[in-house]
Design goal:
Elements lengths: L4 H17 L6 H19 L4 H5 L3 H10 L2 H8 L10 H12 L19 E3 L14 E4 L7 E4 L1 E3 L9 H14 L3 E2 L7 H4 L5 E5 L15 H8 L4 E7 L10 E3 L6 H7 L7 E3 L9 H14 L5 E5 L4 H14 L5 E5 L10 H6 L4 H14 L7 E5 L5 H9 L4 E4 L1 H7 L21 H4 L4 H25 L13 E6 L2 E4 H4 L17 H6 L12 H8 L4
Parallel strand pairs: 4-13, 5-6, 6-7, 7-10, 10-11, 11-12, 12-13
Antiparallel strand pairs: 1-14, 2-3, 8-9, 14-15
């Protein structure tokens, strides 16, 4: 009820002022002032565009006012004394503009200093291209029984449970309207994912939610029943995620509602455990066999895995297993360590896992070096909100991008940093029906679709300016980075990109990570190679 204190107080004071007018006409000022606030609060409750105003009538306007009075106050809200909020107000504003279909044209030049180190840009062409459609797509699982034509920009994994029912409804309805996919996250397919009928990528994590037996292991029959649903377009095995790679999770029994129980296939009254590792396989080769098994049981739908890169020898072991067995996933999604929308331990958020760009290049380079790149598509996720973010990521080896926070901003997220408290003020990351029922699904679904469409229009304009006609033409030579006040390098010049087949025939490229770990990596185990063990023991290699 504290959310409505200002509104209720205004109503009460209006009544008091009306009674006092009978004693003295001078109290009409109180009727006008408190009545005006009461009217404002009533309008807040009745409007459907802003969930924040519906959840915090009158009070929400103080936030809007303070955030808009100047750079000093804005900086106060964006950055604390100890840590910066992941996205700036300007980044959020860009998403809000595109989600609402508001012009994103900006006067007075760039907000960024082009002479600052790490400033990046894309060069334009003297002969720009002309492209009519911004509906850029790629085919995943070409040659499979049920290949999928995916947009180059989709909704990343966010589970029902982490997000509210209304948020899931709005995301999926937006995906349906815009023709792009919605990743279910590890929490499986809820009734709210099914309502609008938008394309789904079913993510299967170590808890096997939605395809789980009573002991917590994988259940093939339950998997098949869900996987063959026509709404499910692809199957994604989650090995790890950017927010907390190598870390499991527990949803306490008290939070396992009837809906969560039905969605995840777990009993009520018991903790819902998501282990740190899978039990259906234990080796790189076992992973690929599991992927192949899921692909078969799904009826030939594109099947792959998602991971945040950690120890390079483990990834190399998976790549060697592909080479030796001939079993390849249809796709790999690389999740950067900087990603993640939910709450996680501070050390995991800040210091565990490889950032997306380096992780993406390692995966791309390995597949190119093994001449497997044309058989496997690569998706990437990690703080992607703008068309330039997409262009830069595709230039470094990805075929498509996923975003989580960008679509949360489109839903109305204000980065209150309260996702883990169940008190999200915008009704997005909460299971409190008093909060999430204030989120207007049709309005927010429209914003999700508009954000997607307008971002791809911006991507088309960038490509045309560079003289390109499709995102698959982007390469590292197109993105420039200032590396010092007097030096600029293209990403092609900054990074080592392997040539096709460079890892074949026993060759090891002049690349430090490959030289250290490629030869010793094993397809039959995720354990460290012998040279790493020798270094640990103090013995020379």
């Amino acid at each position: 009820m504290s959310r409505y204190v200002a509104y209720i107080t205004s109503l009460a004071l209006t009544l008091v002022a009306l009674s006092l007018v009978r004693l003295h006409p001078g109290w009409w000022w109180g009727v006008a002032a408190f009545g005006g606030l009461s009217l404002l609060g009533t309008l807040d409750l009745l409007q459907r565009r802003s969930t924040l105003r519906r959840n915090y009538p009158i009070l929400a306007h103080f936030r809007y006012g303070l955030e808009s009075i100047g750079p000093e106050m804005r900086q106060y809200f964006i950055q604390s004394d100890t840590a910066e909020v992941p996205f700036s107000r300007e980044q959020r504003a860009l998403v809000y503009q595109r989600g609402k279909g508001v012009s994103d044209v900006r006067p007075f030049g760039s907000l960024h200093d082009p002479y600052a180190v790490d400033y990046e840009w894309i060069n334009h062409s003297i002969a720009p291209a002309s492209v009519a459609s911004a509906d850029f797509r790629i085919t995943i699982g070409a040659g499979r029984a049920q290949s999928y034509s995916a947009s180059v920009f989709n909704i990343s994994a966010m589970s029902f449970g982490a997000l509210s029912a209304a948020a899931i409804r709005a995301l999926n309805a937006g995906a349906k309207r815009g023709g792009f996919y919605h990743d279910t996250g590890e929490g499986s397919i809820s009734p709210y994912h099914r309502e609008a009928g938008g394309d789904l990528v079913w993510e299967i994590g170590s808890g096997y939610f939605g395809c789980r037996n009573d002991a917590g292991g994988f259940d093939e029959e339950r998997f098949t029943a869900n996987a063959r649903d026509p709404q499910v377009k692809m199957i994604e095995v989650k090995l790890s995620q950017g927010a907390k790679p190598g870390h499991g999770g527990v949803l306490p029994a008290a939070k396992v509602t009837a809906e969560i129980s039905a969605t995840r296939g777990v009993p009520m009254g018991c903790d819902c455990v998501s282990p740190a590792r899978h039990t259906a396989f234990s080796t790189p080769l076992g992973l690929l066999q599991f992927v192949d098994r899921l692909r078969d049981r799904s009826g030939g739908k594109p099947t792959g895995f998602k991971l945040a890169i950690g120890h390079p020898w483990e990834w190399f072991g998976i790549a060697k297993a592909m080479q030796e067995s001939g079993i390849t996933p249809d796709f790999i999604v690389v999740d950067g360590a900087e990603g993640g929308t939910g709450a996680a331990p501070a050390e995991f958020i800040d210091h565990v896992g490889v950032p997306m760009h380096e992780a993406l290049m390692l995966v791309h380079n390995t597949l190119v070096g093994l001449e497997l790149r044309d058989r496997i598509k690569i998706g990437a996720a990690g703080k992607i909100t703008s068309a330039f973010d997409i262009a830069r990521t595709l230039s470094m080896g990805a075929d498509w991008c996923n975003a989580a926070r960008g679509y949360m901003f489109a839903l109305g997220c204000i980065q209150s940093m309260s996702c883990h408290t169940d008190r999200c003020p915008t009704g997005i990351a909460t299971q409190d029906p008093k909060r999430w029922k204030r989120l207007d699904v049709p309005d927010k679904a429209s914003r999700v679709a508009e954000f997607h469409e307008n971002t791809l229009h911006a991507l088309r304009d960038l490509l045309c300016a560079a003289g390109l006609e499709h995102p698959d033409q982007l390469g590292p030579e197109h993105i420039l980075r200032r590396v010092s006040p007097t030096q600029v390098r293209s990403l092609r010049a900054l990074y080592r990109f392997l040539e096709p087949g460079e890892l074949l025939g026993g060759r090891i490229p002049e690349h430090a990570v490959f030289q250290d770990f490629w030869q010793a990596a094993r397809s039959d185990a995720f354990m460290p190679p012998e040279n790493v063990l020798r270094l640990r023991s103090g013995k020379s290699s």
